[in-house]
Amino acid sequence: MGGVEEVEVGEECCEDDEDDVVDDYDEALDEGDELDEELCIENDDDLNEVNDDNYDESGEMGVGRNTTCMEDGDIGGPGDGDGVSTINADMYTTPTKRNKGPVLPTPSVGMSFANWEALNNYFRSYGEQQGFGVVCMGGNKSGVKDSETGKSNSLRTYVWRCECHGRPKYRRMVNGRVVTCAEEPILKRKTKKCSCPVMLYGARTKENLWVVKSVVTEHLNHIPTPTKSNHISMFRVRKITQTILKQIENDHDSGAHVAQIFNNLAGRRNGVENIGFTKKDVHNILNRRMRLRLRDGDAVAMINYLEKMTKDNQIFFHLHRLDKTGKLQDVMWVDARSRAAYEYFGDVVCFDSTYLTNKYELPFSNFVGVNHHGQTILLGCALVSHETAETFVWLFRAWLSCMGGKAPAAIMTDQDAAMRKAIRIAMPMPKTRHRWCMWHIMQKFSRKLGSMTDFPQIKVALQNVIYNSLTPVEFEEGWAEVVETFKLKEAKESYKWLVGISYMALSLREMWIPAYVKHIFWAGMQTTQRVESINSFFDGYLKKNTRLYQFAPRVFVERKF
User: Which residues does the annotated region (Disordered) include (predicted)?
Assistant: First the structure.
């Protein structure tokens, strides 16, 4: 096999051991879901293309003498000749479907094929027939690259091997770098590498035909059988049709885990044994799809999705801004349903941005309202980079421009100084009355006054004054009585905080005490609990590792308000 020594071995298409498969797995797809123990073989999409023109209507392989082949431009072959050429009796083509048509003959020296793709498809189909996987090792290039017919024209020789070729490579981390161990470790990992010598070496002739120059068909250290092809990834993925692929993508976009998608497919086919592929294959499909989406970046993928939504519905509104380095800084969007609801129920709005600190560290903020049935409605969403006054001013102004400049009559937020400053700038009173969430303030009573010995009695007295006072005068008298009864002035730090939020500053009392804001319509709300209920709904579809391009689709698909 002198011709084999001339080959420049390229990058292998399969990985050495099980750990290399895990590198292809992205935890964002299905956190905590374990992979199967089988090996995943990555294939080049260009190498998996099947040319249906090489088969007759009966599905049989076109074999015969004095067979004429099509022009190179029609079949995408590597040749650069013109017209048609005559192929000898050993010309073979590859069937598209397994177990149909005649059995493929064993490869032998002298077989010729119309192009590289035909030879590649033949040896892969032969491997599927016998029960072993095929790896494209690489080859030599002629130096002349034809831009019209593709990369096959530039190849002069090529080598295919059994996927069990070579010895396993044991790798480990040393000082943060992956190194290959010279000796086998004590605990060996599962691998299919067993130094199998099966190979096929092909070369391109002057007539631009591909001829088998050398071949080894005897396997060593493993016994392939036809049924084993069902356990090889490159053959399993052929059973995933476009219909199944579309279903997998739709279920994943809806927020379903890979395990749920796979179990759903198995249920429709009366068992896992009737599917033909594994859960790991679904992982790899979604990983490949994710990598394609993220070629230009995660933020670009999200903006492209929002642009697509705008083209489908002109009422859909979104706006974003970039920082000085060109990276996505803030983005907000409002769909058609929210804009229509605001026209009728936009007099009271709750705004909350605590989803950042609750669980997932996602800077998610939303605008929430109440309809005429007392139901919570979503009026807008945003992803903000910083909770600063400048960021909130940009967000409020963008949201108001989306709503036609119509400011709400009242807005409720938590006790955040940056929000209060931004609302004064973007929604100046008396157009919009700002109120703090009662729940956030009452939670601070325990932190500020909890060290006092008679705190339980103080808390009950203060709550009675806050909630049961009907007029501002009644509140001031009751508040002074509580301070005098429990001698709160002696607790300097605690009394200083009480004075700061309620007694001295009239503007602060009007921000949260019911007696000062009861004449304003609040749709029955005293807290931002409705926003929290929406956040809890998102918990079912958003995870801590949810990417930006997944965020918006899941919000739109799953929202029910």
Answer: 1-21
Amino acid letter, residue 513: I
- CB hemisphere CA count around 272 (13 angstroms): 8
Say if strands 376-383 and 328-334 run parallel, antiparallel, or are unpaired.
Answer: antiparallel
Average pLDDT over residues 356-368: 68
- Retrieve residue 364's tokens: 């998610």
Give the whole-angstrom CA distance, residue 312 versus residue 253: 18
Q: What's the rounded Cα separation, in Å, for the pair 530 and 369?
A: 8
Q: How far is CA 503 from the centre of its chain?
A: 51
How far is 550 from 30, CA to CA, in rounded Å? 13
Instruction: From residue 46, give the alpha-carbon distance in Å to each of 49, 97, 150, 245.
Output: 6, 18, 10, 18
Q: What is the 3-state secondary structure (H, E, C) of 379-427?
A: EEEEECCCCCHHHHHHHHHHHHHHCCCCCCCEEEECCCHHHHHHHHHHC
Q: How far is 272 from 281, CA to CA, in rounded Å? A: 13
Task: Answer positive or negative: Cα dihedral of 148, 151, 154, 159.
Answer: negative
Angle made by CA atoms 180, 186, 189, in degrees to the nearest 5? 65
Q: How far apart are CA 19 and CA 188, in angstroms?
A: 12
**Which position has the token pair 């000898």?**
88
Q: Which residues are CB-contacts of 401 (< 8 A; sequence separation ≥ 6)?
A: 319
Q: Half-sphere exposure (CA, 13 Å, Cβ side) for 264?
A: 13
- Beta strand 348-352 with 410-413 is parallel
Closest CA to 190 of 383, 86, 35, 39: 39
Q: What spatial distance separates the first Cα and last Cα of the chain, rounded to whole Å?
A: 70
Nearest CA-CA partner of 225 in 99, 122, 129: 129
Q: What is the C-alpha separation between 15 and 205, in angstroms, rounded?
A: 32
Q: Is cis: bond before 430, omega within 30 of 0?
A: yes
Q: What angle do CA 155, 140, 147 make, to 5 degrees?
A: 30
Bridge-based pairing of strands 364-370 and 348-352 is: antiparallel
pLDDT digits (tens, 9 = 90+) for 223-271: 998 888 888 888 888 888 888 989 888 888 777 888 999 999 888 888 8
Categorize the per-residue pLDDT at 86 as very low, low, confident or very high, splitting at 50, 70 and 90.
very low
Rounded distance between C-alpha atoms, residue 236 and residue 276, angstroms: 6
Contact present, 160 and 125 (Cβ < 8 Å): no
Q: With 60 as the cut, is the pLDDT of residue 88 above it?
A: no
Is residue 246 a contact partner of residue 240, using CB atoms and an 8 Å limit? Answer: no
Task: State the DSSP H helix or E strand holding residue 160, giving kind and residue range, or none if neither.
Answer: strand 157-162
Task: Round to whole Å and give the CA distance between 399 and 458.
Answer: 42
H or E segment at 349? strand 348-352
Q: What own/partner pairs with CB < 8 Å and gap ≥ 24 does 361-369 have?
A: 361/544, 362/542, 362/544, 362/546, 362/551, 363/387, 364/535, 364/538, 364/542, 365/395, 366/531, 366/534, 366/535, 367/338, 367/399, 368/528, 368/530, 368/531, 368/534, 369/341, 369/342, 369/345, 369/523
Asked if 20 and 215 count as a contact pair (C-beta separation under 8 A), the reply is no
Q: CA–CA distance from 224 to each of 192, 198, 237 (Å)?
A: 12, 12, 19
Contact 439, 528 (CB under 8 A): yes
